[in-house]
Each structure stands twice: as structure tokens, then as C-alpha cells.
């Protein structure tokens, strides 16, 4: 892949990686988000990776205050946010220092020289100005005073210096739009609507955007910056939009509740990176959604259990530390056999860990993390748009099997955006819930079973079916308190078999890429889909015998998985933890699954996985 | 909203077929009977009633009521009840809890269910001890309580349930005694209150904290030790010979003698259940120097949580037509045709 800097009009390039980096107050996430939108509208496939500090406003100019947004876009299918940027936009010395080493050799640096004064250089721990001392020689450098150019551009609007400099990100965006031949109009429309009440701010930002664009077009930029238009990526016909994981998951929950024909109750407590789901759902009241910001994580799940008990769909959401707090209540939902969806947007752990960085280290917690033998279905989303499908699936399993379901996503999926082929809601099979209103033949059995071993769901308020449930072991059929040893054995088996029975409704595990059987399979789950898929694809193009399998169903697993895994000589499990799925696979299937692990808070690069494949097949 | 239609029932209709498993002589039996006696009087419907409890001896209560019941986990009953009530505001929700359940492990939820003013009845069985775990001291145990976990006496200061409730924003606070015949009256007043109604019930744990309330609960000395409050009535006790008045200099309550029944001359206060300041003083009275205030201490309703949630949901949803296909298609979109993107 050629770097954008080397692209001439004749040179073919099928994808480009751009990273915008600046102070956490510089509006880099906004810039990246708008660039994403214009890219999507140009028909390119794309993947993004927002990477920001946990501090809301870290001290200006510091290394730990750097916020970055990376986008990979192109005219072919894009599965990851890209390994190494082709272009780095650095708004200050700290942003340069933190990001420059990941830039491709020969890549392009665009730096705001106006921010490279002594004070900022000191804060970034630069002894000399890197724009002048030759230390950036292996890259191409374009340094100009974006601050001054922005001030000049917005001068007519009479803003104060500080206010005027806020438009710097739009100036930079304008330049980037020119570089990749993107349309400015969607951004202009967005600015006009965002600042509808402050038209002078909208005008200033648009002026900055246009100035950046014009700078690229007309200014005396000799050398590296050339307009690089990427043709649109091939895609299935249909209506597209961009979506991030938190929004797609929220929409999926709403869709799932509608397919179950139930109102939804969502109990949540603010936590990064899960809060966005609470925010999205709190605006969807017309879809029968009640949201409740509880006093703590435990109240969030307990209220959702209460709502499920009352006959609506209870949903709760959190991230690792909050999920830990909910553990006891999950056991209650398992014991009382009530439907419940628990969303875990995983982040780096343990404890508070890395709140804004991604990780997949809650798989053990999801599958095993409760007291007692407490089986619970666990499914995981692989991408933002897949989160929509998984949320519907979680609702289906919860309501059809009368069980809590854990839905795993992660900070990367929650924040990342991708183009989404808008689903036709008519294509889905609904699964309407029937609450029991009349006793079974032979008398009411609150813990009677259907063919899936699910017990009846009776709403309080239903005449003649009054009954009591709780966390103490239940008698078979009656649901009365029963401490009997034989009863506990029977009930434990029923709870296990009911959850294992979910496998009857999920179909066989498919192979994403490659054949069923061969030398090597990479089996992944969650947001590692992109890099695994790309790496396997590249290795197959080189003629290597390697396949990609990606699990949605973590517990129970598809019934054919044992046979499928045993059809390969070697199995590698890449995951962003120290080997959790690997352990479960070894335990379940006695396969010699080998781990490939990374816990740096950053997604796998394609190259890392390619290297592992080459070594395994070497 | 609690009574849609009043239902005719008898005490028997509220009993389950389950064997009651509290210790013989436990105060819980009396409270259970008082509740089963109250339900027909309020015209309650068994199918429309839900008892939600946490963990502890008292929390077994739902198993013995022929209603819907949910025996949840330690301290979390108010949170579960909040979900039940938000999902179906028509249900008549009762929370059964104890001193450890409500004020120790579940203190946070107790505070917030009161602050939010969920329309429900919260019955806190206070026996000043952990009964189910065999006798450890509780957050309401008096200083110096000897227990398996405090063999040399407890050193921490007890919490006052009613002061906690008022401080959390409760709009109804009352007290009762397990074996007292007035308990159904207190429960009826609580049920009539629209909003979170907090009732502290002194409950005798005959195994681990026997007769800890005997100083004021004993019948033979009740006249001198119990101050039964009634809205609009003077705060009198000791057969009307003593009363509660305001010490203007100390800005505190004081006990005064009433001569020849002339309580007004003695400055005795007339109980006003809507007076929050006096309620704060009443729940802080130290027993011994004062009698124990019982009955409805405070009752001044304000809008309930679930009615506000429902009203907002309906107001926002009004004039919006839910359309799932439109919802998923929102934002800036583009179309790809067989020939590529249509831009």
C-alpha cells in the first residue's frame, strides 16, 4: 500500500490511514467524526479508532493529554482502523511525540508550527524543535502555522483570540478534505445546524474549513501533498449510514424488544465506555423504552430484574467493574429464571484499569463469574453493525429461554464507526412473548417447563396465578422453597440443560474465510474480527493454508464447533487478554488451542497476526 | 393509584399454604397477622399486590402472603421494587425489610427510594440485631451491645431509622410495635399515603435480643412510655397528665405537666402531620427523658416518582410515531446501486 504522500494521480492506492492528533481540548474526535462522515458519503468503506485520555480536560500540551482519532478508508473492504498511519496530523509537540513513531516510514506529517514554541516543546519533553532539528527525516514534513492561518481566516467575524483558535480543527479538516477530494457540504450543513443559535460561530468555522481547503488547493504547497481521490469501495446495493457500536447496540435492543412485543426497561449507572447506551435509549421513549439512572450498579440491575418480573424486558449495561458489582443479582435472575439482558462494554482491567482503552478480558467473568453453578448464555459482538444483530439475538434468547443473557462488546466497538447497510426490519422473524394468563392443565406450576425447559412468565396483576419467587432454591414445578438435596441436584441440572439447549437454536459455526479443515485456524471473538480477517486474507493470498473462524456464541458454543476445531492441525486464538477463550476451548474440546495475546489497550495490528500465522506455518 | 377497585376479602384470603418458619414467639407473627388483617380493610386485591423483600428473618414475609411476592437479595428490595413499580404503576407494592437489610447493606437503596418518592409501603422490622445470621449487632443496636461479633460490647453509634428516612426526604414516617393493636391503623395510614411510606416497626427478636424494647413496649407501663400521635390532637401521654411542648429558648421539645386537663395552658403542641420541622424533632427524641413517639409522625404527600416518569414518557412520546425502519435509517445516509454509490 502506497502512502498518501507518495501518491500521484496515476498511482493506484486502495486505502489510506489518517490519524488526527492534538490536545484533548483541540476537538480531534470531532474532526475525526466529521472526516468519517464525509468519507462515508464518498462511498469509501472505512473503520475508525478513537483513542482519547481518561481525563476530560487533561492539562494542555501534555503528553498524557493527547487525543487521537484514526481512520482507515478506501476503495476495498476495510476491516480495521489500520496498523500504521500514512498521514499524521499533529496539532502540537505532544501529539507529534506520542504518535510519530507509529507513522509509516515515508509517511506524511502535517504539523501546526504555531504551537511549537518553547513552552509546548518543554511540556512535550523536546529539547530541540523536532520540526527544525532533522529528527523527522524519515518522514515527509509539512509544517505551517495553522494557528495564524486560522486566526487570519476568521478575522472578519470579530471573535476573541481564544474563541477564534477553536476553529483550528476545522481548518485542518478542510485541508484533509482537499487532500482526499472530499465534499465539504455535509460538514457545512452540520456546522450550520450545530451552531444554529450562534451563526457567527458557524460562519467562523465554515470560513476556517474553506480556508484549509483553499490552502491545499492554491497555496504554494510544493512537494508531498497531492490530492488523493480514492474510488468508492465495492459494496452491496442498499441504503447506508455510519453507525458506532453504542448506537447500533441501542437500536438493536429497541428492535429486539419490538420483536418480542414487549416494553423495555433499562436500568443503568454511568460508567465509561457503557454510558452511551443509556444516553441513546433515554431519547427513545416513543418506542416504549423507560430508562432509569439508578443510584448504583446493583440498583441498575436489580431494578431491571424487578421490571422483568413485572413483565417487561429488563436490560442493564455496564463495564467490567460495574459488571462485577452486578454479579449477585445475576445469580438472582438465574435462580428466578427471569429474562434479562446484561451488556458489558469491556475495558482494560482489573479494578478501574484503563477506562478509555479496549480489552477483551471479561470473558471469564461473563462465563464463570458468579457464585454457585450459575450458567448464563454469553454472546459477543464483532463490530459496530454486528452489535445491532447481537442485541436482537440477546433479547431473543433471554425471552425464549427465560434467562439472563450477557452481551459482550468493548470500548473499541462502542466508539468506533463504520458504514452500515441499513437493515430491512421486515426481514427479521419476530418472537412475540406470551405471558401466562391461565394455569397449566392440572394446576398452576410457576416452575413448570416448556420443551425448551423455560418456565412460564406470569405478570403480577394476573388473577389466580399469585406465587412467590426468590433466590432460595426452588422446588421442581412448584417453585416453593426446597432445600432438599435431591431437589437441588435436579434443579441444578435443569438450569444447566436449559442454557446448553440454547445451542439448538443458533445453527452451526461457519468459517469466515478459508475451508473447514486444514493446517491452521485462527479462532477469535469480538472486536478482533477486523485484524484477524485481514491477516488471514493476506496470508491466504500468499498461498498459506489458514482459515478464520469467529465466535458470536461464547456460551453455549455451536454444536459443530468441536468437530470443526479438530479438523485443523493447529488452532490459534488471538484475543486482547491473556488467553481466556483459549482456556474455555481447551476445557470444552480438549484441543491444543494456542494463545496469541495483547493487552496494551490498543487493538491488534494486522502485521502482528500475520507474523503469528507465518510462524505457526513456518 | 393503589386501589383501582376495592376487593372484598377476608384475612384467610391473604394466607398461603406455606408453613410459617419463624421462631415460636417471634414478633414477626404478630406483624404478619396485622398485615393480613389490614389488607381486607384497605380493599386490596391479592392479584394486584406485590410484596418485595431483601434478606433476613423479616424478608421471608412474602412467602406467607397469598399475593405476588419476590424474595430478592440482601439490601436490594427497594431497587427491585422500583423496577416493578416503573414497569407497572398499577401494582400495590410493599417492601419488607429489616434494620440490617435496610440500613446497612441496603442503606443506599433505602435512601434513594425515599428521595425519589416511589409510591410504595416500606415496612422496616427493627429488632436491633442480626437474627438470621445468629445474633451479631446491627446498625440500630445500642452502644455496648454484646454479640458474637462484639463480645466486649459494640462501640459504634446506632442509626435512627426514622431520622434516616426523614433526612432522605421521606414524605411519610410512622412507627408501630409488633404486638400493638394499633399496627393496622398505622399500616392503613401508610397505604393511604400516595408516595413512599416509611414505617419502623419495633419487633421483638425473642432469641437474640429478647425484650430490648420492653421499656416502652410493655403494656403495663405503656401509658407513661408511649406517645401516640394523631393529626390535630394534642401530644399527650400518661393519661393526659403530661404533654409535649416547645422549649422556645432551647428550640427543642420538652415534657410539661398538664393540670386539670388544660393542655393548652401547659403549652402542649397539637400534632400537625405536615409539619416537617416538628417531625425532625420528634424522631430525634431520646427515649427515657421522653416517651416513645408512635403512630404517624409525618405525612405530607408530594408527586410520586413513577407518576413523574410515566408523565414524562407520555409527554415525550406524544405526537411521535414509533417507526423502527425510520429509526435505523436516521442520520446522513447514502445509497449504493448495482453500479456503485449513487452520490
**CA-to-CA gap between the ends of chain A?**
25 Å
Largest interface: A-B, 75 and 63 residues
Mean pLDDT of chain B: 95
Number of helices of chain A: 21
SS-based structural class of chain A? Answer: alpha/beta
CATH superfamily of the domain at 11-212 in chain B: Thiamin diphosphate (ThDP)-binding fold, Pyr/PP domains
| Overall strand count of chain B | 13
Percent helix range of chain A:
25-40%
Q: How many beta-strand runs of chain A?
A: 20
Describe the structure.
The complex is a heterodimer of chains A (618) and B (343). Chain A contains 21 helices and 20 strands. With 618 residues, chain A is an alpha/beta fold. Chain A has a seven-stranded mixed β-sheet, with helices on both faces. In chain A, α6 (168-179) packs across α8 (199-218). Chain A is globular, with a radius of gyration of 27 Å. Mean pLDDT of chain A is 91; it is low at 1-12. With 343 residues, chain B is of the alpha/beta class. Chain B has a domain at 11-212: Thiamin diphosphate (ThDP)-binding fold, Pyr/PP domains (Rossmann fold, 3-Layer(aba) Sandwich), CATH 3.40.50. Chain B has eleven helices and 13 strands. In chain B, the strands form three sheets. In chain B, strands 2-1-3-4-6-5-11-7 form an eight-stranded mixed β-sheet, with helices on both faces. Chain B has a three-stranded antiparallel β-sheet with strand order 8-9-10. In chain B, strands 12-13 form a two-stranded antiparallel ribbon. In chain B, β12 (333-337) and β13 form a beta hairpin. In chain B, α2 packs parallel to α4. Chain B starts with 26 loop residues before the first helix and ends with a strand. Classes of the chains: A alpha/beta (618), B alpha/beta (343). Chains A and B meet through α1, β7, α9, α11 and α13 of A and β2, α2, α4, α10 and α11 of B.
Amino acid at each position: 500500500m502506497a502512502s498518501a504522500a507518495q501518491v500521484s494521480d496515476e498511482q493506484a492506492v486502495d486505502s489510506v490511514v489518517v490519524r488526527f492528533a492534538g490536545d484533548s481540548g483541540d476537538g480531534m474526535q470531532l474532526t475525526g467524526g466529521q472526516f468519517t462522515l464525509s468519507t462515508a458519503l464518498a462511498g469509501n468503506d472505512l473503520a475508525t479508532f478513537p483513542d482519547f485520555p481518561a481525563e476530560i480536560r487533561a492539562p494542555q500540551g501534555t503528553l498524557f493529554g493527547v487525543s487521537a482519532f484514526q481512520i482507515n478508508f478506501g476503495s476495498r473492504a476495510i476491516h480495521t482502523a489500520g496498523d500504521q498511519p500514512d498521514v499524521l496530523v499533529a496539532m502540537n509537540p505532544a501529539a507529534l511525540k506520542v504518535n510519530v513513531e507509529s507513522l509509516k516510514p515515508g509517511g506524511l506529517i502535517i504539523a501546526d508550527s504555531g504551537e511549537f514554541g518553547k513552552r509546548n516543546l518543554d511540556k512535550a519533553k523536546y529539547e530541540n524543535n523536532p520540526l527544525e532539528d532533522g529528527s523527522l527525516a524519515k518522514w515527509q514534513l509539512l509544517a505551517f502555522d495553522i494557528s495564524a492561518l486560522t486566526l487570519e481566516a476568521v478575522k472578519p467575524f470579530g471573535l476573541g483570540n481564544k474563541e477564534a483558535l477553536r476553529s483550528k480543527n476545522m481548518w485542518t479538516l478542510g485541508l484533509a478534505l482537499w487532500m482526499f477530494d472530499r465534499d465539504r457540504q455535509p460538514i457545512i450543513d452540520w456546522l450550520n445546524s450545530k451552531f444554529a443559535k450562534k451563526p457567527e460561530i458557524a460562519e467562523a468555522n465554515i470560513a476556517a474549513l474553506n480556508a484549509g481547503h483553499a490552502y491545499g488547493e492554491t497555496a504554494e504547497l510544493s512537494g508531498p501533498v497531492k490530492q488523493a481521490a480514492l474510488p468508492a469501495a465495492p459494496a452491496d446495493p442498499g441504503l447506508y449510514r455510519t453507525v458506532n457500536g453504542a448506537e447500533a447496540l441501542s437500536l438493536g435492543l429497541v428492535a429486539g424488544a419490538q420483536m418480542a412485543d414487549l416494553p423495555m426497561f433499562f436500568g443503568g449507572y454511568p460508567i465509561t465506555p457503557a454510558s452511551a447506551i443509556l444516553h441513546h435509549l433515554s431519547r427513545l421513549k416513543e418506542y416504549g423504552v423507560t430508562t432509569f439512572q439508578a443510584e448504583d450498579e446493583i440498583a441498575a440491575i436489580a431494578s431491571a430484574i424487578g421490571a422483568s418480573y413485572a413483565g417487561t424486558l429488563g436490560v442493564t449495561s455496564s463495564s467490567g467493574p460495574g459488571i462485577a458489582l452486578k454479579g449477585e443479582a445475576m445469580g438472582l435472575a438465574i435462580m428466578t429464571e427471569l429474562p434479562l439482558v446484561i451488556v458489558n462494554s469491556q475495558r482494560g482491567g482489573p479494578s478501574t484499569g484503563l477506562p478509555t482503552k479496549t480489552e477483551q478480558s471479561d470473558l471469564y467473568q461473563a462465563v464463570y463469574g458468579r457464585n454457585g453453578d450459575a450458567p448464563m448464555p454469553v454472546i459477543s459482538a464483532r463490530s459496530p453493525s454486528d452489535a445491532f444483530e447481537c442485541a436482537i439475538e440477546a433479547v431473543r434468547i433471554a425471552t425464549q429461554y427465560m434467562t439472563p443473557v450477557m452481551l459482550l462488546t468493548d470500548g473499541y466497538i462502542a466508539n468506533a464507526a463504520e458504514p452500515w447497510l441499513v437493515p430491512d426490519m421486515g426481514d427479521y422473524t419476530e418472537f412475540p412473548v406470551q405471558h401466562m394468563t391461565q394455569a397449566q392443565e392440572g394446576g398452576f406450576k410457576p416452575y413448570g417447563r416448556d420443551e425448551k425447559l423455560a418456565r412460564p412468565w406470569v405478570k403480577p396483576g394476573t388473577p389466580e396465578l399469585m406465587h412467590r419467587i426468590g433466590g432460595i432454591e426452588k422446588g421442581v414445578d412448584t417453585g416453593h422453597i426446597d432445600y432438599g438435596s435431591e431437589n437441588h441436584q435436579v434443579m441444578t441440572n435443569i438450569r444447566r440443560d436449559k442454557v446448553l439447549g440454547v445451542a439448538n437454536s443458533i445453527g452451526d459455526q461457519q468459517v469466515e474465510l478459508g475451508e473447514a479443515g486444514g493446517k491452521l485456524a485462527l479462532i477469535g471473538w469480538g472486536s478482533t474480527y477486523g485484524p484477524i480477517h485481514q491477516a488471514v486474507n493476506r496470508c491466504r493470498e500468499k498461498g498459506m493454508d489458514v482459515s478464520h473462524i469467529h465466535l458470536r456464541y461464547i456460551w453455549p458454543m455451536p454444536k459443530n464447533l468441536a468437530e470443526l476445531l479438530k479438523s485443523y492441525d493447529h488452532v490459534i486464538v488471538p484475543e486482547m487478554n491473556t488467553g481466556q477463550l483459549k482456556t474455555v476451548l481447551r476445557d470444552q474440546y480438549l484441543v491444543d488451542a494456542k494463545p496469541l495475546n495483547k493487552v496494551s489497550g490498543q487493538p491488534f495490528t494486522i502485521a502482528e497476526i500475520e507474523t503469528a500465522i507465518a510462524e505457526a506455518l513456518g | 393509584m393503589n386501589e383501582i377497585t376495592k376487593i372484598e376479602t377476608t384475612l384467610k384470603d391473604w394466607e398461603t399454604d406455606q408453613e410459617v418458619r419463624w421462631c415460636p414467639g417471634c414478633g414477626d407473627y404478630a406483624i404478619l397477622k396485622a398485615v393480613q388483617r389490614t389488607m381486607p380493610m384497605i380493599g386490596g386485591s391479592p392479584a394486584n399486590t406485590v410484596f418485595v423483600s431483601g434478606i433476613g428473618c423479616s424478608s421471608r414475609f412474602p412467602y406467607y402472603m397469598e399475593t405476588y411476592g419476590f424474595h430478592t437479595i440482601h439490601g436490594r428490595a427497594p431497587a427491585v421494587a422500583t423496577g416493578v413499580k416503573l414497569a407497572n404503576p398499577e401494582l400495590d407494592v410493599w417492601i419488607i425489610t429489616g434494620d440490617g437489610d435496610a440500613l446497612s447493606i441496603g442503606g443506599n437503596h433505602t435512601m434513594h427510594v425515599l428521595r425519589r418518592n416511589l409510591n410504595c409501603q416500606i415496612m422496616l422490622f427493627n429488632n436491633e440485631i442480626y437474627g438470621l445470621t445468629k445474633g451479631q449487632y446491627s446498625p440500630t443496636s445500642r452502644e455496648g451491645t454484646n454479640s458474637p461479633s462484639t463480645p466486649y460490647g459494640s462501640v459504634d453509634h446506632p442509626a435512627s431509622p426514622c431520622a434516616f428516612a426523614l433526612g432522605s426526604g421521606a414524605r411519610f414516617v410512622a412507627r408501630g410495635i409488633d404486638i400493638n393493636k394499633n399496627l393496622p391503623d398505622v399500616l392503613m395510614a401508610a397505604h393511604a399515603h400516595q408516595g413512599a411510606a416509611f414505617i419502623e416497626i419495633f419487633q421483638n427478636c425473642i432469641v437474640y435480643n429478647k425484650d430490648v424494647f420492653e421499656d416502652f413496649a410493655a403494656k403495663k407501663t405503656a401509658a407513661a412510655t408511649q406517645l401516640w400521635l394523631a393529626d390535630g390532637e394534642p401530644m399527650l401521654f400518661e393519661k393526659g397528665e403530661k404533654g409535649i411542648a416547645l422549649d422556645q429558648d432551647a428550640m427543642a421539645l420538652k415534657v410539661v405537666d398538664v393540670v386539670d386537663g388544660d393542655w393548652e395552658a401547659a403549652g402542649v403542641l397539637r400534632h400537625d402531620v405536615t409539619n416537617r420541622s416538628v417531625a425532625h424533632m420528634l424522631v430525634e427524641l431520646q427515649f427515657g427523658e421522653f416517651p416513645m413517639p408512635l403512630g404517624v409522625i409525618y405525612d405530607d404527600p408530594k408527586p410520586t416518582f413513577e407518576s413523574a416518569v410515566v408523565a414524562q414518557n407520555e409527554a415525550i412520546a406524544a405526537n411521535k410515531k414509533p417507526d423502527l425502519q425510520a429509526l435505523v435509517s436516521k442520520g446522513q445516509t447514502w445509497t449504493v446501486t448495482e453500479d456503485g454509490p449513487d452520490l
